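Quick question, first post here. What does this chain look like in 3D?
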Amino acid sequence: MKKLVTLLVCACMCVTCAAGASAATKFITIGTAATSGALYPMGVAMAQTITDHIEGMSATGEATAASIQNLRDLHEGNTELAISQSEVAYYAYNGQMDYEGNAFTDIRALYSTIYNFLQVFVPADSDITSIADLAGKTVSMGSAGSGGEMAARALLGAYGLDYTTVNAQFMGESDGASAMKDGNIDAMIATNPLASAALTELTTSMDVRLLDISESNFYEVYPLYTPYTVPAGTYKGIDEDIVVPRSRIIMCTSTESGLTDDEVYEIVKTVWDNRDEWAGCAKSVETQAVIETVLEEIAIPLHPGAIRYFEEIGIEVPEELK
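> Answer (accepted):
Ran it through. Tokens below.
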């Protein structure tokens, strides 16, 4: 009997210890994007680095509908970290575009990562030679309500087009690529890294053209986009340089995330002190998510924890980001 009581006491102590250990662990989620691109594996790899190096913290990368959902989840306290297109975060913070009258002033930036490219593909034999030619055409705009769809809508607007002048279809890049191969759409607007899985699949399975977007009007109206020359040969069959808009993907948090300034500092420090653990998850991440450009093309305030880390390692933080 005495032995039984001892075993029961030990068992209770084990349960209590386990419960205590669990209670001491802070679980955080990183909102990423669809699994077909570079952002999901990047977020998952960063989460693993955080989990491996910060005692008492466990992070998970979660597949999402990207910028729009991610910023909403941050604002509503449903997640702690999330990626966003830089321009979408700017609109959210300042209450512009789709956020008019509902500014997300709690959003804070942590650092820049890879570039996002606004690309428009058409079949090689199409009579569409410019964005203006999309009038009256059936166009894949990206997933409904996504940051990509917002970017596509802005692009149309710069050429005097909208949903009354094009037959808009709302689908992600993988579905859009399939629809183009099946002949169900005339064009696809994609906000993806160059040579992402969906775009590589599209360009290797059919002959396409990438539309040039070099007119200055778009970049004047939307200055968070900059023109970038896609080198010839980036995609199969596209053998000339093509200019497209690009913007940054940034990591964000919220002042209402439940993370302290010290915890955010530890997260940012851990990610960048251990870059070699996550940078190899995708070619674009390896080449573009580098410490030398970690504060470039950010247009919302930095979190104090991020400011502390970057100043600590000798990176000058612009006053407009403080």
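DSSP finds eleven helices and ten strands in the chain.
Residues 141 and 152 are 6 Å apart (CA to CA).
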